[in-house]
Structure to design on (555 residues):
């Protein structure tokens, strides 16, 4: 196997922000946010994004992918660049519920036909690497010993021929059983205006598949419309990037048959008993050793079944202007993170609004329904969770919960996991009401009772919830799992007095529904560092500092 080497220009390396040698993250040093006004400015055109950054009209540009843009910004002395290895994966997905993608050998041949190495080399100039498995190389659970499908169109054709496939006089594939000619198919993709690199990759994939007899054309569309089509399972194929997490149990969410529900993460519709078994063993692994074994086995089986085709994983690169100071960077996170927002301030002069690029329109700003990254780029500043993640080590940090314990207890003669969270005293919602264990309990109950697809895998095993006092939350599961702590501790917490008003979670429009008009608070309200104020489509989302945020008042 060829080794893929990452090459960076000298200018880019010199412009990078790196953590200091011997750097150890210390949460006690943070007190913020200092920023009063945060504008998430919607700029969809990449060229316009660059110009706005260079003119200091925006101060933060995230998710930069085009090598020419990276090199250009690296030459600018007034711009700081940061790079981090992330949990990114870009995939070509297929609808396995119907012909022809329910044929495994066709999916395997498609993987061989796609020139992943050339795509990465041509489009990323060393800022990405071809992906051969279903977790990114940054993952502690990444398994490299899997089946590798190197780009070889002739080998792909031979695989199909050996399986009985033939080609008609137009070069279109015909299946070996019913002699059906493959129908014309579409690949859903974001538009070139919003995501030029993704659009280019989509075209290259379609071209490579047409070359082996698969009649596929790209159908560019608005990203929100594309996600809606995927949620409704109305598609042939698609391209989509995922930002995964530190835990590998996302493989259960993506590939277990029970997660193939409307809005669920099993978009491809893979349903395979052996796969269900192995990802279930991963999902309910009792300890790290069992988790590692199941993660390895899952990735090996997935490379054989090919529910989706991994294309590449890339580094995250962010550019920020030197007109502000206080950026936080680690080997796992670029400057565009919540820790930066806690301490960012102008390098000179008095406080002023910070403007941060939002690469596309939010889809709905409904935290109960949306899985769009653009929505969560906003929502993550509004809501808190029980635990946070150390950006340097990826270990757990206290957040709304100041301490916690994980115990194995007997219930009906079976071992189950019991989580006990001790929440900070004095926590407040953005409307001034106390945040207590009752809110956390109601959040979990609501998510479980309504079986929300986005959260279903996290709460499905909750058996019982107790709140012995206002600061103590006890969650008893109906199983044991190494991941229960992260699944429950990572949930966003919602105010009980808001959730009790939500009758239809799918149609809920919290950003358009007043909670307290005098305080200018909508139902899009949490306990996080920023308060939602306004969304102007095509322009910006405006957030303001939450003066009640606990990190401002913890000393």
């Amino acid at each position: 196997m060829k080794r893929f080497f990452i090459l960076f220009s000298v200018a880019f390396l010199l412009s990078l922000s790196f953590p200091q040698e011997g750097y150890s993250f210390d949460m006690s040093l943070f007190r913020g946010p200092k920023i009063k006004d945060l504008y998430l400015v919607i700029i969809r055109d990449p060229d316009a994004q660059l110009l706005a950054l260079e003119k200091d009209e925006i101060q933060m540009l995230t998710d930069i992918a085009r090598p020419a843009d990276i090199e250009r910004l690296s030459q600018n002395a007034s711009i700081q660049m940061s790079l981090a290895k992330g949990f990114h994966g870009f995939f070509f997905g297929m609808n396995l519920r119907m012909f022809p993608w329910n044929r495994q050998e066709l999916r395997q041949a498609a993987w061989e036909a796609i020139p992943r190495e050339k795509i990465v080399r041509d489009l990323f100039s060393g800022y990405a690497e071809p992906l051969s498995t279903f977790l990114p190389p940054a993952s502690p659970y990444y398994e490299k010993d899997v089946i590798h499908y190197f780009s070889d169109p002739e080998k792909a054709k031979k695989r199909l021929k050996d399986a009985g496939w033939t080609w008609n006089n137009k070069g279109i594939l015909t299946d070996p059983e019913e002699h059906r000619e493959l129908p014309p198919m579409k690949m859903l993709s974001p538009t070139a205006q919003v995501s030029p690199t993704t659009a280019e990759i989509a075209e290259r994939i379609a071209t490579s598949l047409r070359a082996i007899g698969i009649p596929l054309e790209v159908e560019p569309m608005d990203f929100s419309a594309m996600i809606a089509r995927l949620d409704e399972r109305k598609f042939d194929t698609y391209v989509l990037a995922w930002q995964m997490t530190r835990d590998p149990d996302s493989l259960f969410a993506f590939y277990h048959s029970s997660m193939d529900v409307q809005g669920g993460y099993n978009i491809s519709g893979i349903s395979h008993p052996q796969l269900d078994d192995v990802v279930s063993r991963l999902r309910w692994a009792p300890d790290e050793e069992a988790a590692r074994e199941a993660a390895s086995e899952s990735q090996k089986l997935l490379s054989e079944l090919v529910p989706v085709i991994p294309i590449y994983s890339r580094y995250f690169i962010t550019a920020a202007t030197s007109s502000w100071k206080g950026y936080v960077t680690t080997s796992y996170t670029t400057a565009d993170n919540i820790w930066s927002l806690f301490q960012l301030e102008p390098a000179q002069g008095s406080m002023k609004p910070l403007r941060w690029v939002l690469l596309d329109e939010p889809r709905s700003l409904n935290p109960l329904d949306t899985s769009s990254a653009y929505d969560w780029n906003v929502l993550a500043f509004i809501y808190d969770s029980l635990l946070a993640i150390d950006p340097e080590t990826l270990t757990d940090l206290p957040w709304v919960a100041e301490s916690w314990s994980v115990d194995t207890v007997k219930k009906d003669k079976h071992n189950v996991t019991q989580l006990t969270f001790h929440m900070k005293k004095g926590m407040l919602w953005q409307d001034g009401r106390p945040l207590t264990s009752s809110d956390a309990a109601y959040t979990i109950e609501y998510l479980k009772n309504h079986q929300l697809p986005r959260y279903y895998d996290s709460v499905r095993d909750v058996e019982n919830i107790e709140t012995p006092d206002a600061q103590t939350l006890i969650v008893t599961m109906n199983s044991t799992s190494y991941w229960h702590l992260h699944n429950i501790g990572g949930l966003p917490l919602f105010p009980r007095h808001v959730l009790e008003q939500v009758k239809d979670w799918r149609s809920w429009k919290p950003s358009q529904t007043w909670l307290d008009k005098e305080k200018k608070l909508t139902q899009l309200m949490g306990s996080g560092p920023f308060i939602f104020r306004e969304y102007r489509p095509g322009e910006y989302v405006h957030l303001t500092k939450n003066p009640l945020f606990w990190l401002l008042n913890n000393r």
Observations:
- The chain is about 25% helix and 25% strand.
